[in-house]
Structures are given as C-alpha cells and as structure tokens.
Amino acid sequence: MSPGATGGLRRSRLLAWLLAAPLVLPALWLATSFAVPQPGVWPHLFDQVLPLAARNTLGLLVLLAVVAMVLGVGFAWASARYEWPGRRLFDWALVLPLALPAYVVAFVYVGLADYAGPMQTGWRALGLPPASFPELRSVPGAAAVLGLVLYPYVFLVVRAAFLRQGSAAMDAARSLGHGPLSAFFRAALPMARPAWAAGLSLVLLEALADFGAVSILGVDTFSTAIYKTWFGLYSLPAAAQLACGLIGLVVLVLLLERWTRGRASHASKQLMPPARRPLRGWRGWAVTAAAAATVGLGFVVPVAQLLAWSWEVRTSLPEVGEAALNTALLAAMAATIVLALALVFAVLSRRSGNDRGVRSAAFVAGLGYAVPGTVLAVGAMWLLVAAEGAAPWLGTLALSSSVLAVLLALTARFFRVGNETIDAAFLALRPSLLDSARLLGASPWQRLRRVVLPLLRPGLVAAGLLVLVEVVKELPATLMLRPFGWDTLAVKIHAYTSEGLWMQAAWPALWLCLIGLLPVWWLVRQQR
C-alpha cells in the first residue's frame, strides 16, 4: 500500500472513531458514577426497590418469552406452510400491532379493565365474583400486553426462515415415523433457531427498555427503578449506578441470544418456498379465529377504543398542537443527524475497502440500540453534567437541560436503525456505475450527488422513516431529558395517563398510532 493510501486509511479510521465516540460515551461514562458513593440511597434501594424490581423484571422476561414464541412461531409456521381462510390478509395484518406503542395499548386496556369499564361490567353481568376478575396491573398482565405488541418481531423473522427452509427436513422426520407435531419440534424449529433466537432477543430487549407500559400497569422493573431513583430520590449518581446494572442485563440477553444461536445457520436457501398444504374444515377456521383474535386484541380494539374516547371528548379535545410541533422538530432533527452520520460511515467504509477499523467504529456506534432509553438518558445527563463541571463556560449553555441532550440520547439509541438500512442500500450499488462516472470526469462530489444519492433514495427514505417513527414513539429519554415545559406527544400521553385521564390521552395517542403505521406499511411493501 502506498504512503498516500496508508495516510488516507488512517484518516478514515480516525474520523470514524471520532464520530462514534459521542454515541457510545453516554453509556460508557456511567461507569464513572461509582466514584460518587451514595451511602444514603443504596440501603433504601436494596431494602425497598431492587428485590421487587428484580423479581418483576425476571418474571416479565420469562412470561413474555413464552407469549412471543407461542404467537410468533405459531403464526409464522401457519403462514409459511399452510393455506387457510384469510391467510393472505393476515400475513400483513399480523404485523399491525407493531404500529402501536406499548404504553398506548397498556393505558387502553387499563381503562377498559377499570371497575366501571366494559370488561369488569361484563364480568359482573355474567354473575362472576368481582374478586376473581384477572388483575391487569400485574406481571402476567404486563407480559400479555407487551406480548400482543411485540410478537411480530418473532413472527417476521421466523416466517422468513420457514419460507427458506424447504420441506426436506420435515419429510425426513416424517419418514422416520414422527408425527406432524413431533417433526416440527425435532426438525423445523431447531433449523430455524437462529431466526427465533434473534426475534426473541429483540422482544426481550424491548421489554427491558420499556418504561411507559410497565409504569402505567404499576409493575416496577429496573427501568422504572432508575427513573424513580433520579426523580424520586433525587440521586443522579445512584440512578447512573443502577443503569450500569441494567446494561449488564442487556449484555446477558445478547450473550444468551448468541449462545442460543450457536453455530447454527438457516436451512439451505431455495428459490421457491415449499407448497402450502390446505387446512380444511375446523382446523383452518381455528387458525383464522386465533389470528383474528390476536390482531383484534393487539390492534383493532386499542385503535377502536382510542377513536371512541376521542369522539366522546370531541368538543373539548386536548391541545396538542405545540406538542405535535415539538415532536415533528425532534424527529426531523434526529433523523437528519442519523442519516448524515450513517452516510459518512458508509462512504468511509467503501473508501477504505471495508477496513476492519472503520467497520468496528460503526459497530460500536450502533451499540446504543441495545441500550434502554432510560439508561441512555441517565448516561447523557451524567456526561453533560460532568462536561459542564469540567468546563464552566459550557454551564452557561445549559446543555444538560436542552434539546441537545435529548438529541444526543436519541441519536445514540437509533443510529443503528439508520446505519444498517443505508449500509444495505449501499450494497446494491454497482461499482461499474461509479467507475463509468469517474471515467467521464465526474468529481467525487458530483459522483455522490448525481449517481450515489439518487440510487440510494429508496434506502434513505426507508432509513429516515424508521428513525423518525422510533423517535416519535420514544418516551423515557425524551421524558427524562427534555427542557422544562417542552412536551412531545409521547410526554403528553404520559402526563394524562399518570392522572388516569384516558379520554384526554386518546387524542395524542391516535396521532402516534397513525405515524406508527408508516413503517408497517413499508414492511408490508417489502414482503410483497
């Protein structure tokens, strides 16, 4: 390699790591919090907070894993291998719950399950004892609500794996005397292990990151414990120390996913998926009924109830114009920053010949996606407070109580979403097109502007759309870091639900649901 090429490679690595540093620092800086002991806080946390939070978090993860696997894998197998009434409709309808934030579904069902709500009213009308009504504000209730929203993560990836799997393994198992159910568990499910392990890890990471749904349902987890430590006990250092423990749980989930996947890979890919077997009679209609019930509970009922509540208060709808504007501005700024950073990383990677140092920097920068929003919020605040203490002139800018703090946390949280989408789009670029432009005398800037960006437009739109929707739905980071009085739609919903004002929360929630339908629409288009 020539000295000039070596110097260019070093510059690319240096720039990549300089860009990655601000995205990973909020999480890494949490470790410095242990230099600030909190002897007055930790005894209370050990006695009153952590035992319950640990039990609830572990129980929630276990129950949620069961719900997500049963629904996700079950519907994925039915969709990939069988033909039943309404199968084509439910192939995309089963993805619809992803459009709803979990905290929206949670407050809808809390409202429906109130003593005067339709669920308990119907229960008592049937002559059933009120005391035996299932308690929604519990760990099983939280697992059910989160499972209805998050199972599509498993459904999408496992369905794709089953479609690629072929029928050879199942045929071999059947020829050895196994029945359909036994052959599924002994052949098809183990071969799809990388897919369901990946989907399940996403579900568990989302559950660890969830703050809104569990707080509405009254279930104390590590996420809510961090929030209460900061805003209830007024101890940012202790909250940062707790956040380090939650990062340890996230790492444990990632290691468990890696161990579960092992060295397994998807079954050999084939050009055409196996022919679907028709499910006739009651079996086909049973699958249809189960799919309809799942979509109804996870999407139709919440949206219908939001519409009903909004209609009931139509003459006095809450004012959400300013919150909607703040939400749009925050989402646009975060999406712009993420897309710009992702483009720079993609260009650096191509210019350096996919250098390992550049790729490692991009990987490290994307680790924030696995870190809960509460953790990144505490990390960003802890980092900015330390920066203001080290450089007093920064204190005059009040960085720790500005929109910049929110943007730092959100960019670190969702950089990977935009980066992976744009990186995949870059893979579709044919080098011959760039070579032709170079031979025609186009400068690097002209090649980027006139060749690369037009070809990348679909990927850029998809990446921007995904990041925008994620930012709009994000609650804990925005709630914990926003300037005083600077509300978004998600914060408005949290404020109303904290006071039990379900009808007032319905109007901003409807706007969030409408925005959340955008990535679902994109996913459905990708599947066709």
TrEMBL record:
Pfam families on file = BPD_transp_1
Q: Report the locations given in the UniProt record.
A: Cell inner membrane; Cell membrane
SUPFAM superfamilies given in the database record: MetI-like
Which CDD domains does the protein's record reference? TM_PBP2
What are the alphabetically sorted keywords of the record?
Cell inner membrane, Cell membrane, Membrane, Transmembrane, Transmembrane helix, Transport
Q: Which stretches are transmembrane?
A: 59-80, 92-112, 142-162, 195-219, 231-256, 285-308, 328-348, 360-384, 390-410, 451-472, 505-524
Domain (ABC transmembrane type-1): residue spans on this chain: 54-255, 324-523
* Topological category with respect to the lipid bilayer: Multi-pass membrane protein
The similarity annotation says: Belongs to the binding-protein-dependent transport system permease family.
**What is the recorded name of this protein?**
Iron ABC transporter substrate-binding protein
Origin species: Arenimonas soli
